[in-house]
Amino acid sequence: MKGYIHSIETFGTVDGPGIRYVVFMQGCPLRCKYCHNPDTWQMNTGQQMEVEEVLKGFYNNQSFYKDGGVTVTGGEPLMQIEFVTELFKYLKQHQVHTALDTSGITFSEKTKEKFDELIKYTDLVLLDIKHIDPKGHVELTQQKLDPVLAFARYLSDHQIPVWIRHVVVYDITYKEEYLYQLGLFLGTLNNVKAIDVLPYHTMGIVKYQQMNLEYPLKDTKETSKDDALQARNIVLKGYRESRRNRM
Ligand code: SF4
Question: Which CATH number fits domain 2-246: 3.30.565.10, 3.90.226.10, 3.20.20.70, 3.30.1510.10?
Answer without folding.
Answer: 3.20.20.70
